[in-house]
Amino acid sequence: MRSLARQPHESEWVYSTTLSRRLLTPLSEYVHDLPSPSCPAIELCIAACGYAFNPVIFPCWPILVYVTSLSCGGMKRSSSWSNAWRGGHRAATNDAALYATNVTIAYLASALVTLAFTEIGKASFATTRPPTRSKDKSRRYGGLVASLKSKHSFPSGDCSQAMNLCMMLWMYVPPPALNDDADGDGGMDGGMLQFWRNVVLFGMLLPGVAFARVYYRCHWIEDCLGGMLLSCVIHRTIIPVIATRIKTGSAYWFEF
User: pLDDT tens-digit profile of 149-184?
Assistant: First the structure.
């Protein structure tokens, strides 16, 4: 019965590489079959990661981006807390709310672009999701985490959105100029906050989302890796084009 369940998955070319057959697929099945933690609080944390980018919860992330942009902008003196780019020169702006609004608009645009390419990928590859388990092997919160998921598996939309959020905050909030030493204060406060925030984003949130999506049998590991890679490619190609069209005041604030 197990071999029959694996056959459709292994016949799809996305999962037919040597790496998938010898490592990733067995590892995915191992995570799929992990027993539920004896401590409900641990599984609640896993479920929170797996549900974090569900359409029901997603509106919380633009709010977080806005608040983070607003607070990061206020770290330095009002005359230099935020810097915009125009012709390669920094132009100061004191409008924190406008800056945070534009960052949030850019994030929403990036999320929509990521969603569009994720759905294109799902429709193009049309891969099957992991087989469902019997009721006695079901997970706590499994129905909640798996709710509103699309038909196809590759790439993972949740992982692509998680990577998009991480990339957005890492690259643009606070802007690189926040850590410059132009005002002589060493720029340490903003730099340390940015460092620890990145540890939380890339070291906890992103792996947590990927693990949870596999743990709850919504995806294979390849789906999660594909979603992350897709988001990285989008951030190196399309997002900069979108970002340079969004202004703070009269100056561009996004630019590589």
Answer: 888 899 999 999 999 999 998 887 764 444 444 444
Local structure of 92: helix, strand or coil = strand
Predicted TM-score (pTM) of this structure: 0.80
Give the C-alpha separation, 42 to 19, whole Å: 30
Of 2-11, 55-64, 119-128, 212-221, the poorest mean pLDDT is in: 2-11
25: exposed, middle or buried (C-beta count within 10 Å: 0-12, 13-18, 19+)?
buried
The residue segments making up the domain with residue 207 are 49-80+92-252
Q: What angle do CA 189, 192, 197 make, to 5 degrees?
A: 125
Instruction: Provide, for the chain, the percentages of residues in helix, strand and coil under a 3-state DSSP scheme, each rounded to the nearest 5.
Output: 65, 5, 30
- Secondary structure (DSSP) of 221-255: HHHHHHHHHHHHHHHHHTHHHHHTT-EETTEE---
Asked whether residue 37 is assigned to any structural domain, the reply reads no
pLDDT the model gives residue 90: 37
**Per the structure, how many domains does the chain have?**
1
Distance, in Å, from the CA atom of 23 to the CA atom of 220, rounded to the nearest integer, reads: 12
Tell the residue number behind the tokens 């998009």, with chain if given: 164
CB-based contacts of 43, cutoff 8 Å, min separation 6: 36, 37, 139, 140, 141
Contact 50, 218 (CB under 8 A): yes
Residue corresponding to tokens 């479920």: 47
Q: Would you say 135 and 202 are in contact if contact means Cβ atoms under 8 Å apart?
A: no
